[in-house]
Design brief:
The chain is an alpha+beta fold. It is built from 5 helices and 3 strands.
Amino acid sequence: MTARRLAKAAEAIRETVSTTILFHLRDPRVKNVTVLAAEAAPDLKSAKVYVSVMGTAKQQSLCMHGLESARGFIQSKLADRLQTKNTPILKFVLDSGVKRSAELSQLLGLTDVTSDMPDRPVPLEGNEASQLEDDDEFDDDEFDDDEYEDDEDDEPKGASEV
């Protein structure tokens, strides 16, 4: 199978699994799940689905057990979407990168990045401002203002006087 076709199949798997978990799965154990990526085998007989689960280690474990028990249902939805000879057997892999990133940003105090940003643009100082002015030079003679004046007195074509 070509790399392009395999990538399209992996993206279809990711979309279908994500949609199924979000809208069709009613297992209370499966919550706060984000489907990050999917990798399909070249023969499409198996696929790894990388998920991120926010919460404690116990909640992550419960969620992974819920996903494993719902694997058949998710595969049936996938079979309807892919319409291939073999339906890939799904394996869910917990990817804790997103959770680790959120924890690190919280430790560093970067959780609310927008609060540190000013409401208006920061003025440039000294050398930065003069460099910007030099780059933005243009010739005013290129533009003829007479061409762009609005003719408010003119009537539209086809208008008749009453």
